[in-house]
Amino acid sequence: MDGLKKLTMRMSMRGFTRLTNAFSKKFENNCHALALFFVFYSFCRVLKTFGATPAMAAGLVDKVLKMSVVVAPIDAANPVPIVRGP
C-alpha cells in the first residue's frame, strides 16, 4: 500500500471500522471487497495531490474510469440466477 493510507481504507470501507457488524464473515467476500476498493481508489478516484487518479499519474490509463465500466465485466461473467417460485 504505497500511497494508500490504512486510515483511508478503514474510513472508506465500513467493514474495517471498529465495533461494526457491517462486514462479511467469509474470507473470500472480504477479499473481493478489498479488490474493488483498490480498483476504485487507483482508477476512479481523483486525488487532490495528483489532480488525477494514481493510475493516471503512473501512466496506466489516460482517463478517469467509472465504476460501472469496471464492474460490467464482472456482472457479465456472473449472470443473475433465475428466480423460481413465488
Task: Report on the architecture of this protein.
This protein is mainly α and 86 residues long. The chain has one domain. 47% of the residues lie in helices and 0% in strands. The protein is built from four helices and no strands. The longest helix is centred in the middle third of the chain and has 18 residues, at 27-44. The termini are far apart.
* Estimated structural class: mainly alpha
Give the uncertain stretches in residue-range form: none
Major sheet summary line: none
The number of helical runs is 4
Summed up, what is this model?
The chain is mainly alpha-helical and 86 residues long. It has one domain.
Task: List the SSEs and their pairings.
Elements: H1 6-12, H2 27-44, H3 54-57, H4 67-77
Q: What labels describe this entry?
A:
single chain, 86 residues, mainly alpha, 4 helices, 47% helix, 0% strand, flat
